[in-house]
Prior knowledge:
- By secondary structure, the protein is of the alpha+beta class.
- It has helices at 2-8, 14-28, 96-100, 103-109, 121-132, 136-158, 163-184, 194-204, 208-218, 225-245, 261-273, 277-298, 301-317, 323-350; strands at 12-13, 35-41, 52-53, 58-65, 71-78, 81-89, 114-116.
- The protein folds into two domains: 2-133, Beta Polymerase, domain 2, CATH 3.30.460; 137-343, no CATH class.
- It has 14 helices and seven strands.
Amino acid sequence: MADVNREVYPERTVNEVVGLAREWVEKNYLGTKGFVGAHLVGSINHTPGEALFPLYRDVDIAIVLEGIDYQEIREVSHQGYILECILSGAGRYDGAKKILAEPGMACNLEVDSVLVDPTGKLEKLHREVALDYNKRSFVRLRVEQAEKDAKENLEKMTGAANALEFVFYLGNFIMHCTAMTTLAHLEPPTHRRGLLNLKPMLLADGQEALYERYLQMFGSARLDAAAARLFVEEAAGAFDRALEIKKSPVPYEWKLDPCIRPYLVEGSLEMIEEGGHREAIFWIALFFMISNGVIQQDGNAEEKVNYLAQTGGFLQALGLGSAEELAQRSKECSLFLEDLQAYNRELIASSARLR
């Protein structure tokens, strides 16, 4: 699919992609009942406007709507790009102070991310959030929320019914731990490249050992590039089969869409080619878990056994091949979280970037 996109659609700059996203939102939502506005989410907000935006990356857009109290994610394809549309209730945007305390929201409205704003509400929030974004009290609140999320997933790891469930919660734990330290550095957290982006922050602070522990907790510290490339192939194969047979819901199922496949494959290879093969395993694991979850629910008896064995090999590579290893990893993650909390609190207290 990625090759076809390159033949049909040109790769555009960030500024051009932002224009495409605005065009799509205006066509599909402007003037509709309950539409408050829309803004960009994620790494595109922090990428230079003249830089090329690869076709395999998705464009995250928050669609703010009155009359809903839930969040729903939909993937659509537009002009060769993947638009990940996050339908969010307007209640989440009820004042700058509320947004400033949210790890996943403050960084997106601190910058000029507004796409469509018929009422002016989002622009007003952007100005207010930008004014107080680097206040120590709000940074502390955002980090504490990420800590809370990490603790919740750590608790779920200890009660996981099986290894697949354990890795799902372990991935969430690592994601929130990565967000904690990224936020403490006053940088925007992200998902796919979260560990890779965190690395220079910790190394610049003389915390190479702490960074290595992130990789040790996930289990990828000793994996090489060849292993990472093999796991990309296996995850892509499981992804393809899951697409064919899916009937039942699974966590993160919005990422199980044909247009997302290049993001899995090329998004992983991008990191591997940069020397981030250990960090890429985190992204690869997400698709392993989603795809095998579908196969175990909706596949035939033979493929359930085959794909479970394949995923079992992946888990063994992460050092998670037995109940004893799962229990030991939970203990190690608990100690890691305590050390990480201490580091982040000291960082927040002493950082000259905060006021």
